[in-house]
Amino acid sequence: MKDNYVIIMAGGVGTRFWPFSRSTNPKQFHDVLGVGKTMIQQTVERFEGICPKENIYIVTSEEYYNITKEQLPYLSDDQILLEPSRRNTAPCIGYACYKIASKNPNANVVVAPADHIILKEDEFRARVNIALHFSAKNDVLVTLGIKPTRPDTGYGYIQFTESEGDIKRVRTFTEKPNLEWAIKFVETGEFVWNAGIFIWNVKTIKQSFEAFLPEMAEAFEEIKGDFYTNREADALKRAYPQCKNISIDNGVMEKAENVFVVLSDIGWSDLGTWKSLYDISEKDENQNVLDGQTLLYDTRNCIIKTPQDRLVVVNGLDGFIVAEYDNVLMICRKEDEQKVKEFVSTAGNIAPKFV
Asked: Rounded to an integer, what distance in angstroms lies between the CA atom of residue 80 and that of residue 69?
């Protein structure tokens, strides 16, 4: 396992999960599922047996250093990579991969978000190990693909070619199709959801950056001598303005020809919205998801997440989100959850401290 590394992306704000997810304390640092561990803690533990703890790297924003250190105290400062600005996933992944490559040119890397739910953790480890064995011996970029359970328009889709085994060559990527196309994709059986979990060796990903994002590759190559030194933070501030604001999917995966997908059934959810939390959570006899001290009357199909020290009485609601955290209470129809970003924007203008 000494050549296996894990990069966990933990710099996002998670606006759609407001009021729990705030710019000062985003959802990856919360115990969203009420299991006694935050999402980032669960994510790190998920990789036990895949790589040593000293090979786990967290990429996050400068303002989240303290909370990361508090929740993952066994990580050294060299394992907590602080971005000077948010520029999407390609710079984040490039930074971490170039840093790891400067230490171990034989590194084989898994990249994963800090805020996803994976219910079948043993199967997840098995799928990741399949990908790691493949990427260790081949010049390939690998992603995990989730068999779709519905024509969801909120996910990216990967089309794969038919072949023997669990590893398929990728034919196309489609980002968030409309409902008509999503239905067709699911019906063909040739598409899986893009889980945003990637596996490759550092030699291959560096070649991909050089081919498709040459300015970014040059920026990180120029500062490789500064990694693992007290010059790293200043070097990053020089390099990041040269990096395009682009996702790894748009910048590399959709352009490369050596992309493969490992078909996976791992109980996955990106937990991007309140509805996604509702969908995966246990429900009472009236299809309510409850987290907090509640008394319900004639209430069904709701998700209610409130502080444990506050009694909440709800009467006559059907299909609502009721969420309270740190002096902000939001009551919203589940079907209108896309308006949460609008709520955050307005709240930011009226009372910034609550955003």
From this structure: 8
